[in-house]
């Protein structure tokens, strides 16, 4: 069984650099170690599975139970498919696919985090989504340690969600098979690099952040008056949406500060950590953003991030 440590600062595992300690912490390096840990853990303790930490707002008080941070990574290529362990960085998967001349993931250039989290939240950008390439996902049931396999259709993929997210953490994603197709490596590299440049130019990547705080707004679910005002910015994501950043900017929220947390001037759907921001600071801004947009547009914003 992997070593269990006590009072481990979780801010060290968050892109935000925010968060208190985990009472207990373990980082199994194999599926077998993970199964042993799940089987022998104290079931009276709350449990949280920590991935890449790219979309988590971790409480200033930390986590009162056991945090498991699997360090299970690796990539195997088989003709036009790639098998990837869940702890692998998305960047590494994209680079491997491109070098192999395999098309289907280049749209995700610059996407942060690990594969497990990308599948769990059905990460997407530039009209692409992880679900478009996934063929099989393997997971472990937390309560039983049983290995399970799901086809794409069984994963319950939706807009920034999946069965693994909706199940409330009852399963841990272990690996996934991506079904790709032959492509031109130079063209694929150019697409990925262009998306990386776009993110660098449009997103506040020079400050700790956890990506977009809110999902974009489905055009079909907003008042007609909002559709009219925002007609020039409607985009596909992958269905027609109004960028939440537009609504936040129009509401005058750019540059609003709470402590060291700041609604980005560059992209107001990002709340950045300019120094020593706390989770409380960020939450205050999130509530302000939600209230302001609802009061002005009648829209309830839905968080894309996860609270811990």
Summarize the structure in words.
The protein has three domains: 5-68, Uridine Diphospho-n-acetylenolpyruvylglucosamine Reductase, domain 2; 75-188, Uridine Diphospho-n-acetylenolpyruvylglucosamine Reductase, domain 3 (2-Layer Sandwich); 206-307, Alpha-Beta Complex (Uridine Diphospho-n-acetylenolpyruvylglucosamine Reductase, domain 1), CATH 3.90.78.10. A hairpin with a 2-residue loop joins strand 9 (124-125) and strand 10. The model has no long low-confidence stretch (mean pLDDT 95). It contains eight helices and 21 strands. The longest helix has 19 residues, at 279-297. The strands form seven sheets. Strands 6-7-13-11-12 form a five-stranded antiparallel beta sheet. Strands 1-2-5-3 form a four-stranded mixed beta sheet, with no helix packed on it. The protein is an alpha+beta fold and 308 residues long. The chain is globular.
Strand arrangement, major sheet: 6-7-13-11-12
- Overall outline: globular
By CATH reckoning, the class of the largest domain would read Alpha Beta
Rg of Cα set: 20 Å
CATH topology term of the largest domain: Uridine Diphospho-n-acetylenolpyruvylglucosamine Reductase, domain 3
Number of domains: 3
Structural class: alpha+beta
Query: Which residues sit in consecutive blocks of at least 5 with pLDDT less than 50?
Result: none
The number of E-state strands comes to 21
Helix and strand sequence: EEHEEEEEHEHEEEEHEEHEHEEHEEEHE
């Amino acid at each position: 069984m992997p070593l269990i440590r006590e009072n481990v600062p979780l801010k060290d595992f968050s892109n935000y650099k925010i968060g208190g300690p985990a009472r207990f912490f373990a980082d199994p390096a194999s599926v077998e170690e993970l199964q042993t840990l799940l089987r022998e853990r104290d079931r009276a303790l709350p449990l949280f599975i920590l991935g890449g930490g790219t979309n988590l707002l971790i409480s200033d008080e930390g986590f009162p139970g056991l945090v498991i941070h699997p360090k299970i990574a690796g990539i195997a290529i088989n003709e036009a498919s790639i098998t990837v362990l869940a702890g692998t960085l998305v960047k590494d998967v994209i680079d491997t696919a491109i070098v192999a001349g395999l098309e289907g993931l280049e749209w995700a250039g610059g996407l942060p985090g690990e594969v497990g989290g990308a599948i769990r939240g059905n990460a997407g950008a530039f009209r692409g989504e992880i679900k478009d390439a996934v063929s099989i996902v393997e997971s472990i049931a937390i309560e039983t340690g049983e290995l399970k396999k799901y086809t794409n259709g069984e994963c319950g993929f939706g807009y920034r969600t999946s069965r693994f997210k909706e199940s409330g953490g009852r399963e841990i994603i272990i690996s996934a098979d991506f079904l790709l197709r032959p492509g031109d490596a130079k063209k694929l590299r150019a697409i990925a690099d262009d998306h990386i440049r776009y993110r660098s130019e449009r997103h506040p990547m020079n400050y700790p952040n956890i990506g977009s705080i809110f999902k974009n707004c489905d055009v079909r679910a907003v008042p007609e008056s909002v559709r009219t005002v925002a007609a020039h910015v409607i985009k596909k994501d992958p269905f027609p949406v109004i960028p939440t950043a537009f609504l936040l900017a129009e509401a005058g929220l750019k540059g609003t500060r709470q402590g060291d947390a700041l609604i980005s001037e560059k992209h107001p759907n990002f709340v950045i950590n300019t120094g020593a921001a706390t989770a409380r600071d960020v939450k205050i801004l999130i509530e302000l953003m939600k209230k302001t947009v609802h009061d002005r547009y009648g829209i309830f914003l839905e968080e894309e991030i996860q609270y811990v």
